């Protein structure tokens, strides 16, 4: 099942209305506005809860999204590039979120670094078309994935912590 | 000198070995290069039973009365989307059967992790699947025309081209005769479904479960049968309690056996569909744990969320309404759909028995051993999560302002 924390996070993200994909012209523009409005609210929520964990931007058409996401484990911040396309069948099908630099490092990943979601994601998404959007996919898909996979990848030494370029603060040295 | 003698001996030995080699290769064929037999193109299919005719055993189907006109296979074009464990084997089967043309779509590369499945070889690692497949298939049968596309069909950038090739990719520049979905994910199946609904293209869906012990094939005729979006996907029960299924650390398991069996079912039905023999299965499931094969058929969901599915349903109903008056004259228009009904009378027997796929009563009408992956959304507008807020009227907002506002949050 989806855990309670994820549930309450989801509940605070506004629902979308427009059933439109990137080939639907003006309806897609309307959908895109809703996507941005929901994302803005979600990031605000995250910041208020001191749990800001991604940066995202899209191309002009809103069909391709890219940015960064991060996860703090043992007081160290691990950051990754994140990218995804909006499929032609969106929002009937969720976007396939990818972390390309982790491709090949975990079995819970499909080709090109697309993350392997739990059995619960797709049914929940399908039942909430067209109300769920990109913000929901991040909260329900990528967030829980990072929480499970990053500690595991760190433990297996498949990813290592990179010191931030400028400031090294209290975080360093407290690993393990 | 002993050294000269050794040289003579070696020369004699080489000559002897050369003779042996020549004997082993037999009456060296004209196309032999460096001992490797390379099959040349054959202009017309012959039914002559000789060792050198690659089509003799296929043409025998005609002599035995199974297929009326086997040579017709050369006129057909089949598009295969997904050239993995099922698609590559399906492509090889059609290639060996002498299909006219294949269109292959995939954006993956061959990896050593694929070697538990059939077709690809370790030395092809790193090549795109479509390129590696084309080379192997062309070597097996150079008579087949093979067109490859190394891209993801689900993205906006590629979808229009994909639809275009389905519409105009046949040997005569018309629509392909059949599309085979051999992909491994829901997103790609939905993209194929969308393409086929838009242009009224008949297609076969196939799949193997992530635990490798069940699979299925399903025929989709837009408007006539349920489309892939009409109801949640079907699952063939494996008899394994989902709660005891260990998924930790892996996305998917696979077996060459299950994939080979599903590819076999898929191409068997493809041949029956194209060459018009036997009965074409509408849905055939495979439970490997019990060797159980459920089969059934589905009518479309009148409330399908896919606009083009509903449009095709209307077209099909209009076509049916015209039929009883003049079956001979209308047959040309309705060719694809009529094949099954006229030949096999499915329409007659299925009217009452056939499950109507409708809305949220997900498993209603399914045969034993098959269920829906999840419940379809209820017609009402209540989300699962206890959501309190809905998006305010976004129409009144300006997209650029929203984008600026969102980007500004990045710096804070």
TrEMBL record, chain A:
Function: E2-like enzyme which forms an intermediate with UFM1 via a thioester linkage.
Keyword terms: Ubl conjugation pathway
Membership in a protein family: Belongs to the ubiquitin-conjugating enzyme family. UFC1 subfamily.
Residue ranges that the Swiss-Prot or TrEMBL entry lists as coiled coil: none
Any single GO BP term: protein K69-linked ufmylation
GO MF annotations, alphabetized: UFM1 conjugating enzyme activity
A Pfam family: UFC1
Keyword Methyltransferase: no
Protein name: Ubiquitin-fold modifier-conjugating enzyme 1
Matches recorded under SUPFAM superfamilies: UBC-like
Organism encoding this protein: Capsaspora owczarzaki (strain ATCC 30864)
Residues at the catalytic site: 116
Superkingdom of this protein's organism: Eukaryota
GO cellular component: cytoplasm
From TrEMBL, chain B:
Signal peptide: none
SUPFAM superfamilies assigned to the protein according to its UniProt record, in alphabetical order: Activating enzymes of the ubiquitin-like proteins (SSF69572)
InterPro entries recorded: D-isomer_DH_CS1 (IPR029752), ThiF/MoeB/HesA (IPR045886), ThiF_NAD_FAD-bd (IPR000594), Ubiquitin-activating_enz (IPR035985)
CDD domains tied to this protein: ThiF_MoeB_HesA_family
Keywords, comma-separated and alphabetical: ATP-binding, Metal-binding, Nucleotide-binding, Ubl conjugation pathway, Zinc
GO cellular component: cytosol
Pfam families linked to this entry: ThiF
Domain THIF-type NAD/FAD binding fold as annotated: residue spans: 55-305
Transmembrane segments: none
GO-annotated molecular function: ATP binding; metal ion binding; UFM1 activating enzyme activity
PROSITE patterns in the record: D_2_HYDROXYACID_DH_1
GO biological process: protein ufmylation
Gene3D superfamilies per UniProt: NAD(P)-binding Rossmann-like Domain
Lineage top rank: taxon: Eukaryota
Family the entry assigns: Belongs to the ubiquitin-activating E1 family. UBA5 subfamily.
Designated name of the protein: Ubiquitin-like modifier-activating enzyme 5
Taxonomic path: Eukaryota, Filasterea, Capsaspora
